[in-house]
């Protein structure tokens, strides 16, 4: 059916669009698989770019081919080298042969898992039978699912794609084992096709009882040939011998990228048999605690045989959904304020799930048949959970937990049940499986630890438990649910053990370890309000990074010597209009007031790039982190920055306010702002000016520290961005997270150079990036010449305590050689040896 000659394809994923040649994979980039386009996905569901039939689904679930009504065959390939995951992280939502509508969800992907275990998430849309079509990209910027992406038109003279080539009676055939890792998936199949196309002969592969012409990628992939499986290659035509040799060569040689592909990390397994009275589990968050075990049960619905009028049920479900969405948005807002990316990612996914048409349509269909809203919602979720669990992927089965979370939350909202668990303080909670929202609730109620019969160490709830410092064991099996509530147990998450009969000696040991930790914390807190002096008398200011006056109040109570970084963009985001000058002044004044007589460093707005404001349209950037962000906004929207500077000048006392500029790369940017401040101060009749400092966040600024320090009152190193720009690694890239380490010797060199440059002009240097909150880094930073550390508020006491244990001159001596070490891991090891923690 070739009736639709012109076709516009909608984006199958949301995210930045890349030209095919920019894809970091030679087979795709060279067009060997066909022409197309790529997207670096930000969402987790692949949608159909047009209506069509699913003609091929990769055995490993990472790629799907659709045939559009005009005959175009479209390969949708998620990530690079994702075949190696063997299906882990992918949930197919459609089957081979199925007709799909444009925009229909086809495949769901666990972005965290795939990003961590594969080369790249960059996903492709390839026209695999492009011979008869012209293809034209419609955009190369960021797209949302469904937005126009590509235009394809069928050439006027294009007949049906020839399935056979020039043939003669000559034939040659041979058998060979396919050497490609993961078998004949999309990329090796493309090489086979390319090889076949360079000969006159018609080549085909036969596997089991099916044959496929080598000119058709789809047909090749549909054979489902695995690695090391034997195929029959047949070539027919005048150059059949040459063609056969070339085909054997292509099939029998693993691709270079395959040979060097990353080995997926094996999933953690429960430990083997252990002694009586101990349940073995898998550590999802470390820690050692003792306390009463308390069981939590999930909500179970009574059977519903009634026939309900649909409209009130529809209304009830809609209200309940709105309520839960509102709660999740609130959680998201709080996570955003704390800059807790993991929590944001998890609950953004929950919000998206609550809007998923598959779920809503299923619930609506049940309601239309007379079911109660509770049962309709519950059944819709159960059905999706079953699909995820039947895919045979542990990871996807773990994601069913997120759905169950929403099942319970919406049910609670529907039934109006107060959502609060009755628990004694210090309880160790046992449940079949806890959900992310349970975890937030339990953590707020002060539980000591978590045990789950099911669950996995990579689930969202595990990630959250780690972030909250709550020891957590998963995969303990159903026995954990048979333990009487109230029994005193030891949860040794590090050792993967739930000890059901701890003897008095063991209890004493666990309590002692907990006590030591608490005492250390209490001592640190007791002295948190005193200045932090090194053993040889150098004072290090330990300030706090905050985003609001509430946080500033907590920081002040926690002993912070000041605010080292107020991220003012939090005042500007998530609203429809910009805050006016007076609103800004009040917000900055509130932070000053919350800090008593301590200094407050206020950073001017750092938006632009990927942090867009609804009311501040900026040009779409091909490369946002290298675009108009930070101080560069002064160039794009000068009036916004002028207004902020005016508001800052009006706080009182202005000497307690220090202004800091983000993303500075050269002196002119600093001088420009100094002139604006002078001008506005003169307009306002002010005799005092706030100090003006710059952030050292890009290598250029570190290398120019001396020149900047000539005109700045202070420098503050933003190690988060400085790491990103020095190591050329996205600071939010899940797969690179462990390597974006600011203790890399290259960063240490830039920090040393910054301090040396500042010293020449008698300026002080602080660190306000996350490295300042890492106690392992404290001696190195002091050693390199940093005199202010701006840390996350709860860590003020801990970092002050660390400073007091150090000798600054010894730190100076021992830090220099670290600059010559080969990498960040070597620096960390050396720090652990030279300045052990808790010594
Ligand atoms: C930094 O880059 O280290 C920094 C403190 O700024 P932000 O994290 O707000 O970009
Ligand atoms: Mg920064």
Automatic annotation (TrEMBL):
GO BP field: phosphoenolpyruvate-dependent sugar phosphotransferase system
Which InterPro entries does the protein's record reference?
Dup_hybrid_motif (IPR011055), HPr-like (IPR000032), HPr-like_sf (IPR035895), PEP-util_enz_mobile_dom (IPR008279), PEP-utilizing_PTS_enzyme (IPR050499), PEP_util_C (IPR000121), PEP_util_CS (IPR023151), Phosphohistidine_dom_sf (IPR036637)
Which family does the entry's similarity section mention? Belongs to the PEP-utilizing enzyme family.
* Any Gene Ontology CC annotation: cytoplasm
The biased composition feature labelled Polar residues covers 510-526
HPr domain location is 171-263
List its EC numbers. 2.7.3.9
Where does it localize?
A: Cytoplasm
Top-level taxonomic group:
Bacteria
The enzyme's main class, written as a single word, is transferase
Q: Which organism is it from?
A: Pseudomonas fluorescens (strain ATCC BAA-477 / NRRL B-23932 / Pf-5)
**Region described as Disordered:** 510-538
Short name of any one Pfam family annotated for the protein: PEP-utilisers_N
Q: Name one GO molecular function term.
A: metal ion binding
User: What cofactors does this protein use?
Assistant: Mg(2+)
Name it.
Answer: phosphoenolpyruvate--protein phosphotransferase
User: Which Gene3D superfamilies does the annotation name?
Assistant: Glucose Permease (Domain IIA), HPr-like, Phosphoenolpyruvate-binding domains, Phosphohistidine domain, PtsI, HPr-binding domain
What this protein catalyses is: L-histidyl-[protein] + phosphoenolpyruvate = N(pros)-phospho-L-histidyl-[protein] + pyruvate
Alphabetical keyword list: Cytoplasm, Kinase, Magnesium, Metal-binding, Phosphotransferase system, Sugar transport, Transferase, Transport
The PTS EIIA type-1 domain covers 25-129
């Amino acid at each position: 059916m070739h009736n639709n000659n012109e076709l516009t394809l909608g984006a199958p994923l949301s995210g930045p669009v890349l030209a095919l040649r920019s894809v970091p994979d030679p087979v795709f980039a060279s067009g060997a698989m066909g022409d197309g386009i790529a997207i670096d996905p930000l969402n987790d569901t692949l949608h159909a770019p047009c209506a069509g039939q699913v003609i091929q689904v990769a055995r490993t679930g990472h790629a799907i081919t659709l045939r559009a009504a005009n005959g175009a065959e479209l390969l949708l390939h998620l990530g690079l080298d994702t075949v190696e995951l063997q299906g882990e992280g992918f949930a197919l939502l459609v089957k081979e042969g199925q007709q799909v509508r444009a925009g229909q969800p086809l495949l769901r992907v666990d972005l965290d898992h795939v990003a961590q275990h594969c080369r790249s998430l960059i996903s492709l849309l390839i026209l695999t039978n492009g011979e008869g079509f012209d293809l034209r990209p419609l955009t190369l910027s960021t797209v949302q699912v469904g937005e126009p992406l590509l235009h394809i038109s069928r050439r006027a003279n294009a007949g049906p794609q020839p399935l056979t080539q020039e043939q003669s009676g000559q034939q040659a055939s041979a058998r060979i084992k396919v050497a490609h890792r993961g078998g004949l998936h999309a990329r090796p199949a493309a090489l086979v096709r390319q090889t076949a196309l360079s000969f006159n002969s018609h080549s085909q592969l036969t596997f089991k009882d099916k044959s496929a012409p080598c000119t058709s990628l789809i047909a090749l992939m549909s054979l489902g040939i695995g690695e090391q499986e034997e195929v029959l290659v047949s070539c027919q035509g005048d150059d059949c011998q040459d063609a056969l040799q070339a085909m054997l060569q292509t099939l029998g040689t693993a691709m270079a990228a395959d040979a060097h592909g990353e080995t997926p990390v094996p999933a953690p397994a429960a430990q083997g048999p252990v002694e009586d009275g101990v349940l073995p589990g898998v550590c999802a968050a470390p820690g050692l605690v003792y306390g009463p075990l308390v069981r939590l049960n999930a909500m179970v619905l009574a059977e519903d045989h009634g026939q309900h009028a649909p409209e009130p049920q529809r209304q009830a479900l809609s209200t309940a959904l709105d309520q839960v969405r509102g709660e999740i948005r609130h959680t998201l807002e709080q996570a955003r304020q704390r800059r807790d990316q993991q929590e944001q990612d998890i609950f953004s996914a929950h919000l998206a799930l609550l809007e998923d048409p598959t779920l809503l349509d299923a619930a609506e269909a049940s309601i239309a048949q007379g079911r109660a809203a509770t049962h309709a919602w519950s059944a819709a979720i159960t059905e999706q959970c079953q699909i995820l669990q039947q895919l045979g992927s542990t990871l996807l089965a773990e994601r069913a937990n997120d759905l169950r979370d929403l099942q319970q939350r919406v049910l609670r909202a529907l039934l109006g049940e107060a959502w609060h668990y009755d628990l004694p303080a210090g309880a160790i909670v046992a449940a079949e499986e806890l959900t992310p929202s349970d975890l937030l609730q339990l953590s707020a109620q002060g539980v000591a630890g978590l045990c789950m019969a099911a669950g996995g160490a990579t689930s969202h709830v595990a990630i959250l438990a780690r972030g909250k410092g709550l020891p957590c064991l998963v995969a303990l099996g159903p026995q954990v649910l048979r333990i009487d509530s109230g029994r005193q147990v030891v949860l040794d998450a590090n050792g993967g053990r739930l000890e059901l009969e701890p003897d008095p000696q063991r209890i004493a040991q666990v309590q002692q370890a907990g006590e030591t930790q608490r005492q250390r914390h209490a001592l640190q807190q007791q002295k948190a309000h005193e200045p932090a002096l090194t053993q040889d008398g150098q004072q290090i200011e330990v300030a706090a990074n905050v985003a609001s006056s509430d946080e500033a109040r907590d920081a002040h109570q926690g002993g912070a010597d000041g605010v080292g970084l107020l991220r003012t963009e939090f005042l500007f985001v998530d609203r429809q209009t910009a805050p006016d000058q007076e609103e800004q002044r009040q917000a900055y004044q509130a932070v000053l007031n919350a800090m008593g007589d301590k200094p407050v460093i206020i950073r001017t707005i750092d938006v632009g790039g990927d942090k867009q404001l609804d009311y501040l349209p900026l040009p779409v950037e091909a490369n946002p982190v290298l675009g108009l962000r930070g101080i560069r906004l002064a160039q794009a929207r000068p009036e916004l920055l002028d207004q902020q500077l005016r508001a800052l000048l009006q706080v009182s006392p202005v000497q307690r306010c220090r202004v800091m500029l983000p993303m500075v790369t050269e002196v002119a940017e600093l001088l420009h702002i100094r002139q604006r401040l002078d001008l506005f101060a003169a307009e306002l009749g002010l005799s005092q000016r706030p100090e003006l400092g710059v952030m050292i966040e890009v290598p250029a600024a570190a290398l120019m520290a001396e020149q900047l320090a000539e005109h700045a009152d202070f420098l503050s190193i933003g190690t988060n961005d400085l790491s990103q720009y020095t190591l050329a690694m996205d600071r939010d890239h899940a797969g690179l997270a462990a390597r974006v380490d600011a203790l890399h010797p290259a960063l240490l060199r830039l920090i040393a150079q910054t301090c040396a440059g500042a010293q020449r002009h008698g300026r002080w240097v602080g660190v306000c990036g996350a490295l300042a909150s890492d106690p392992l880094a404290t001696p190195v930073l002091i050693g390199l010449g940093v005199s202010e550390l701006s840390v996350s508020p709860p860590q003020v006491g801990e970092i002050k305590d660390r400073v007091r244990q150090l000798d600054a001159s010894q730190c100076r001596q021992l830090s220099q050689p670290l600059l010559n070490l080969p990498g960040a891991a070597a620096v960390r090891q050396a720090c652990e040896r030279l300045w052990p923690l808790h010594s």
